[in-house]
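Record Peptidase M20 dimerisation domain-containing protein, 431 aa.
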Amino acid sequence: MSALVRIPTVSHPDPGHQDDVAFARFVKTFEASYPLLHEHLDRTTVGPGGLLFHWAGDSAEKPLVLMAHWDVVPVVESDWSEDPFSGRVSATDVHGRGTLDDKGSLVVICEAVETLLAEGYSPEQDVYLSFGCDEEVAGTAAVEAVDELRSRGVTPWLVIDEGGAVVEGVFPGLRRPAALVGVAEKGLLDLEITTADQGGHAAMPRQGGAVARLARAIGRLDQHPFPVTLTDPALAMVETLGEHVRGPLRAVLSRAGSLRPALAQAFARMGPETAAVVRTTVAITRLEGSPAANVIAARATAHANIRIQLGETVESVVARLGDVIKDRTIELRVVSGSNPTSVSPSDGEQFDAIRSAVAVTYPDAVTAPYVMMQASDARHFHAISDHVYRFSPFAMTREQRDSIHGVDEYISLDALGRGVAFYRHLIAERP
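=>
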């Protein structure tokens, strides 16, 4: 784990800024780390460098696909308390960018496969490992992995990618850990909000210029958030976790189905993490205006990163934003967008297989479905499978969850060990 974290496989939207040497070094180190895996599994390169492995089983009837990605987001080194690519191993943790997102998942999957191979194990069903190299920039490796599997006639029985985790303190009244398994993900929309006006010298400003209009539009979006709704997967999460809640709240949650509007409003008031469960969210992430301190901007632009609630679409979201802004001088331009995924079942053999692996590795945890707010490579696999799930088999504190795409990311050694056990059980003990 430490050796792989030390290699800065940072993805950039512009391939010209990417360190190809680091990516090549990662593959070489990965090969050396897992010799049995590379000896016994067939490897195919997909896209710009993604890796697709096939571990042939006795049957191809119920193929399993295990996913991870090994590219990471950029860092601002000065914000970290230590070298973000140190890979430092302390008494309890491994530190560095990518430990949680998502080299940790890659490592525990490969450790599970490597140790099973060392024991002479041969799977009853085909197993595929799909490791992406460009997930952080919404690249093509996962898309081409899906195309490759489709060309082979593979319909995955179960797909698992990064996503939920084993968490505590995220649900009122629940004193047990919750293993949250993503059964769907929100849609993703990157939008430019732009307006233009006459520029000029800052010594002679006019009222109502481009910056003022853009600020007014952003203010309206902030003051008029999207309406809340408790989707079917969110309701299933509430009902599942509610069975284990103590105190008077348990009686309330037992009637969750008849209290959906009230529960949705309650989630919206509990904080940003729970509010994101019940509505489409809009985050203004970048602002651009004047090129100089003494120049009035002739053009002002904001970039909005939007996560689309199930039941809505890119088109319906853009239409509502226009209705809220109410300014014809404001242009809304879709940079990229994808609708929410379909919903995988939270009952049946596949979800039971995940629940069983959680019970072995985190015996106190309650396994429940949820909708993933972030985007992942898994969304592409809905095209070839009805059972696509998002779960990282790691216990994560709130501090750790905040460190994903943040600073001072780390994973515990205990979580890594449990992650290996999770995947060993999933491969060797599933139906």
